[in-house]
Amino acid sequence: VMTQRMQLIQPEVQKLQEKYKDRTDQQSQMKMGQETQALYKKYDIKMSAAFTPMLISMPVLIAVWQSVQRAESVYNGSLFGYSLAVTPKTGMFDLIPFYFIVFIFMALSQALGVLGPQWLNKQAQKKLPVYKQSDKPVQGQGMMYFMLVFMLYIGFTLPAAMCIYLAVSSLLRFAQTAYIQNKYVHNKKEAI
């Protein structure tokens, strides 16, 4: 919910940045920081709350990753008669259509998982008249695209089973974001 709140107030944050754009002295920068903190306080945004779930889930994610990599089904399993131990890279170089499909499915899932929340927030901004829409790019967009490319590289070089795992986890993550957006942002305008 914190991430959604931060993205919804993004136009107000950008106004502050625009206000102090040409002021590079330390006093102006401190004033901008104070106004930004006041904005976060006004909308009950706690920066630590945005990162805590990610930090807590990292050990679990690493454990799941390790168990899936060592799973018997990865080494000996197959899907539709195709080995899950073969990487999409190898399968695609051998011109096997199954591995093209798996990689494309994973790529589309990753794109939805990375870019979908941004689209959902734009939809929320349209529905909530309290927030003015902005045509400026969202902060951290470069990192989003880097992560998308990085995940595509990982999916291309790991076994097909891991590629499927990445695709499904990305779809679930997007579904979770859409649910939170619908339940807590769209339906409870006053909560933000």
Topology:
Blueprint: H1 2-8, H2 10-19, H3 26-42, H4 47-69, H5 72-76, E1 78-79, E2 82-83, H6 88-93, H7 97-127, H8 141-157, H9 160-186
Antiparallel strand pairs: 1-2
Helix pairs in contact: 2-3, 7-8, 7-9, 8-9
Q: State the strand order across the main sheet.
A: 1-2
Structural class: mainly alpha
Q: Shape from CA axes?
A: elongated
What proportion strand? under 5%
The main pleated sheet reads as:
2 strands, antiparallel
Order of helices and strands: HHHHHEEHHHH
Record field, number of beta strands: 2
Q: N-to-C terminal Cα separation, in Å?
A: 9 Å
Helix content: over 70%
What is Rg?
A: 21 Å
Number of helical regions: 9
Regions with pLDDT < 50 over 5+ consecutive residues? none
**What number is the mean pLDDT?**
76
Characterization of the model:
- The chain is mainly alpha-helical and 192 residues long.
- Helices cover 74% and strands 2% of the residues.
- The protein is built from nine helices and two strands.
- The protein has helices at 2-8, 10-19, 26-42, 47-69, 72-76, 88-93, 97-127, 141-157, 160-186; strands at residues 78-79, 82-83.
- A two-stranded antiparallel sheet has the order 1-2.
- Helix 7 packs antiparallel against helix 8.
- The longest helix is centred in the middle third of the chain and has 31 residues, at 97-127.
- It is elongated and about 65 Å long.
- The N and C termini lie close together (9 Å).
